[in-house]
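Handout, page 2. Input:
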Amino acid sequence: MPPKLQKRKLDSPADTGGKSKRSSDIVCILHARDIQHGDFTPLSIVRGTPEEKLQQLTDIRERRLQQDEDSPYRYEDICSQIPNNLDGIDVEVTGFHRGCYQNFTKNLDRLKNNNQEEPKPIHRSPRKLSGTFGVEKFPLTCIFCEKLECKLKRKTERCTTFAVYKDKNSLLEPTWKQREPNPRANDTDEDRREASREMAFTVVVDYIQEHVIREKEVVELSALRSIYVSDLEKAGFPNPQYRGEKLKARLEHHVVGESINFTKVNLGDRGCICYNLVYSADKSVADAIAHGYKLGSVDKYKDVALYLRTLIRQAFMQSHPLPWPPTADDLDINVANEVLPSELTNFLNFVLSGSSEPECEKTTRIVSSICQDICRATTNGEWKLPKHILLCTTIRHLYRSKQLTTIISRLGHCETYDFGLELETAVAKALDERIYSSSLLNDRSLKPWRQTKASSSLAHKERSFSTESKAILPLCFLKSQFLEEPVDLDELMTYSLTPVPHSLGTPDGFLNKTNKATILHFLTDDYDGDALYPSEKCLYIQDGNALFHALTQLPPTFGEICLQMLDQMVAKKDFIFSTDSYHENSIKSQERIRRGSSPKYIVDGPATRKPAEFKLFLSNDANKVQLYRLLLRVWGSSVAASRLEKCDRGILVVEGKAYQCELLNGDVTTHELHELTSNQEETDTRVILYLKYAVRMGYESAVVRTPDTDILCILMHYAPSLDVNIYLDIGTGKNRKLINVRGGEYCTALLGLYVFTGEDATSAFKGKGKVGPLKKLQKHQKYQRSFSKLGMEWTLDGETMNELGAFTCLMYGYPREISVNMVRSIILGKMIGGNERLTIKSKVELSRLPPCRDNLVPHMQRVNHRVASYKRADQAVFWRPYPFEPGQGRERNDDGLLEPVWSCGPVLPTSLIDKVESTVDEEEDDEEDSPIDFDEAFSDEEE
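Output:
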C-alpha cells in the first residue's frame, strides 16, 4: 500500500503555469519542515513524464533507507511520504516544493551503498630498486612542503633530486641523486584520479587569477564548479555530483583564497535560489551584490524567451495550413493578428509603448510586423504569414529584382524569390482553371480575350508574353481572312509572326533548352562495362568549375576550401586543374544571365570565411575569379608543401594561364607554362590542348573528369588524331564509370549535330530533343557530310544552309520536303482543319511549327560559329570574328550585351502590321472604358 499522502500548506504563493491553486489542494511528497519551501512544481509539468520523476525519487529513497538508523542522511520521515506509484493520484496537485526537492536530493555522494562489495585490496610485490640509486628511505616528496610539485608564479615546479642510501639500515649521509619520479608508482586508478583532480583545480585557480583577480570580474561559484567538473570529465573521471561547497572550502584554504571573497545573494523573487558569488578582495560587497542581481536578471530574460518560444511553437502547430494558392482573404492583416500568440503581442506592446494596449494604429502595425518576423524566424521559415508573402510579391512586381528580394528575404522580412515564382504560377493556373470551368470563353464575343490578357498579368513575365501571343495573334489571323485581299496562309508561314520564334526561344528572349545528357546516355548504352583506371603514365584533367559545384561538407574558410581541393587532386599524382575564363563579348553571357547571379563577395585572403550559400556565391563571375586567384595563391604557398610532396606534376590553369606548382628543396615554387596559355574561354575546348601536352610529355593515357556532355562530343571528334588513350570519367557515386573514347569518321558529323540541336550557346528545337534527330541522321547518312562541313569556315555557304534546312524538315517528320516554310504551311493546315480557314476555335500552337527560313538562317550562323571554335580547340591562340559581326547570328543590345538575332527578315507581312496595331489599340481602349469586374468574372455561380 502506498503511504498516505498528506496535504501540505503552501508557505508562499505558487505559480503553476498561470493557474492559481488553493494551498489546501496542493500535496508535497517531499515535504520538510523548518526550511524555505519556495515554488511548488506539480508532477504534470516536470521534465519527462511523471512516472520517470517518481522512479527517480524512489531510487533516492531506497538509497537513503539503506543508511544506518542513526545516520542524518536517512530522512525516514520524508521517504515515507513518497508513493510507490501514481494510481489514483492527481498529478496536477501532487508534486514538490523547490526547497523540499533540493533538501531531499542533496548530499547523494555521501550515501553509502550497502549492496556494493568492498573493493579487495591489491597486493603488489615490492619492486626491486635500481642498483644505481640504492635505497630510498623517504617518500619522493619535498622535505619542506611535503609535496612532489608546487606552483610558483603560475609555473609548476617538480622535485627532481632525492636522498638515496647505500644500505637500508644505514643512517649515514645520503647521496643526492637526480631522478625523475617513477611513473609506475602512480599507475593505480586512485592515483590517476587524484592527479586529474589536482589538474582540474589548477585550471580553476588559473581562471580565478585571470578573470577575478586581474580583470576584477564577479563570477558565480556554480560557473567555477562547471569548469572543474568539465575538466574532470575530459580527464576520464567524471563527477557530476561534485558540490560547489567543496570547491569553495578548497579555495578558501588555498593561497588564492587570500585575494578573493565569497558572498551569498538571495533574490527574494526567485524563491529559494541563492547565488554564491566569487569576487576580488579589492571590490566592495555592494558591487558584488549588484552584479548578482544582474545575473538574476539574465535568468529572467532567459525564462521569458523560452516561454515565448514555446507559445510560438504551439501556435504554429495549432494553425491551419495556408491554402494554395492563397486568396486575398487569406492574406488579410486581421487573419495574421488572430493566429499570432497574444502573449507575444502584449510583450512587444510593453516594449514599444509601456502598456499592453497600443497607443495608435502605427504601434499596432509595427507590433504585427515584428511578431510575424519573430514567428517566421522561430519556425525556420515554415510558418507562412501574410506580411512575408505580400511583401515578396510586391517587390517582385515593382522592381523585378531577384537580388533585392533575396537580400530582404535573408533579413527575415519576406519570402524567397523562388517562393514568389511558385505563388504567381499557382495563381495563374488557378485563374485559368476558373475561367475555363466557368465557361467564360464563347464563340460570339471577343471580350474573353481581353479578360484572359488581364488575368495573365498576375503570372510571371514568361507567362504574360505567352498568353498575349496566344490571344492577339489568332485575332490578327482571323481579321486577315476578312481583308479586301486576304493574306494567303502559305505566304503567312514565310514570316516569323512573333519577335522570338516559339520553336527556338522563350517568350522572354532566351534560348530554348533541352536535356543534353540524353545523347550521352544514348551513345553509352551499348558500352560494355567500365574501363580499368590506368595506373601508370596517366595525366588526370579536372574540370575545376564542375568540382567547385560538386563540393560538400565545406570547411569554414576559403583557404581551407582551396586545400581541400588540393587534397583531392594530389591523389592523382599528375594532374591539370583547369578553370574557365570570362571574356567580354562572350557568347555565353546570355546563358549566365538566364542562370541568375548573386552579389559580389570580397575574398580578402585564405582566412576569409565562406558565405552560408556557397553555390549562390559561385553564380557570380567576379566571385569565381577571386576564388581562382586565391587557389593559385594558396597552392603556391608553404602550407601546400606537405601536400605537393605526394604528386609528381601539378598544374593549375587560372584566367587562361597555366602554372606548374613544384616543391624544390622544401619550398613551393610556381612558374608559368607558356605552351598552355590560351585565349579559349572554357575548359571544354582547352581539354584538347591539354591532351596534346600529354602526348609531348610522354603520357600513355589521360583521364578527363567532367559532368559536361560537350566534352564527350569534342573528344570523339579529336580522338583519332591524338596518340594517347583517352578516358572520360562521368557520373557520381554508384553511377560513376570510365569510358574509353576512340572516336571515328562519323563523330565529326556528330559534333555538328550536337550543337545544331541545342547546347549552352545555341537554341534547341522545342519538343525535338537530341536522340530523335541523331537517329534520323544515322538513318539518312547523306546529311552527315553537311554537318561535317559546319565550322570549316567562319561563314556558311548557301548549299550547306539548304541541306540543313532539308534536315530540319526531316526532324519534323517530312523527309520529302526541303523547305521549312512549306512544312509550316502543312502543319498549320492540319491544325485548322480541312477548310483552311481560321476561326476563334482554331488551336494554333506556334511552338509546334518549325522555324521559318528567316529564323533558321541566324540559328545556323550561331551553330557554325560555335562549331568553328570547337574545331580549333587544338590551337592555343587563334583568330575568330566577333560574335556580333554580320553573318555570326548575334547582335549587341543597348546595354552592350550579346543577344541572338532571331530573324533576318520582317516578322509580319505589311498588310497585317496595321491590323496588329489596331487590335492592340482596341484591347487597350476596352480595358480603359470597361474595367474588369473580377468578382463577377471569377464567380462560381453559372449564368
